[in-house]
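MODEL INPUT / OUTPUT PAIR
PAIR INDEX: 1
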Amino acid sequence: MSFKRYLESVGSCSSAVEWVGKKGLNTSWKTCPRGDWLMWFIVRSKLNPKLIVRAAVAVAGQNTWAVSDKNESLFEDALWQAQCWTLGKAQSLRAASKQLARAMRYPTYDDEFYALLCAQYVLDVIEGFENVDAYVGMFCPLRIVSITSDLMASCTGEGRKTSQKRCAEIIRSKVSLEDVGAAVKALSKKGVLFT
């Protein structure tokens, strides 16, 4: 089965499938211009949850500029706790989540609110993995990339395509082709094959 046919079989969006065309996994991974497509793929490929969280933390961390001094420590603590979780050393994920919820209690829907929401989504991803909640495990990483792309575009004045590309580069810096290849190999042992 070709990579394109695999993507069709697992419900990829038509624009991603069209972009892949005849490209294989290696070329697609190295050249994909959209962070949301990469994040979707690694989540859908059942990549190690710790790698997904590392990528989510790195993407969400791009939003530090939008967080006020008042909430900066909450934002940074949430991402730090998530990073510690990837190392098996998280201590207060629940406390960090509660503090973020309090900070967002009266939503302003400004850049800071969405930056804090990304940090909350990172913690939600962990909770989703720990509680085997497939919806949260799939939805939250994609929302992190989408929100961050929008915030980057508004902050820098660059287009959304450019900010999506930057998110893709961030994800690739945290998740290697070898990591993806190992996940694909594990799937192929379960009968999901593509070249």
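PAIR INDEX: 2
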Amino acid sequence: MMTILSQVLILAGSVWTVIQIMGGDSTDSISSGTNTTATTAAPSIDCDTAKILCFINIGFAVMHALISIYVQNAIVNKIAKMHADEGDDSGVIRSDDVMKATKHIIMYDFVFCFYVFALPAATFYNCYAISDLNDTDCATGKAPAWAAAMAMIGYGFATMCYLPCMYCGTCCAAGTKKVAKKGKKGVETTVGKPAAAQ
């Protein structure tokens, strides 16, 4: 849900910038009583860099949102398939199920493989483009474009850190349950045996 919310905000900032740049030559009328003053919007000179950055971020935002939905559905579908193969219809999702499904998606899914390269590309492109944006004289929509680029950079680094942490956490949870089951079996077998004579 956070992925979709963050991408909607990035999309909104990028679209707002494009709208401001495209309408940069229009005039606004401010009316107060009988006096009407016409003011021009901030100049949209040398705004090609901001416009290109925003169009690319619109594409990246759509890509991130769609791939997050795709990966989540792929993991849920893999878990459902594993449960069907095992004959388990309880509907309970165990942490080792999530780990196995995630491992399968990481190893065999083409879309995820594409995303492994696309995510850092989007992040580091924004690192480059934000410095390029600061060198322009574009005054129209520079702030929302800059904010969208910073949000995309933050999202990229957070996502690159989240996947290994999520996978390690799932592995630890699955391992803990296996150790607990082995520990219970060991306790049950030792409790049932009579104590050795001394």
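PAIR 2 NOTE: The chain has one domain: 2-20+45-178.
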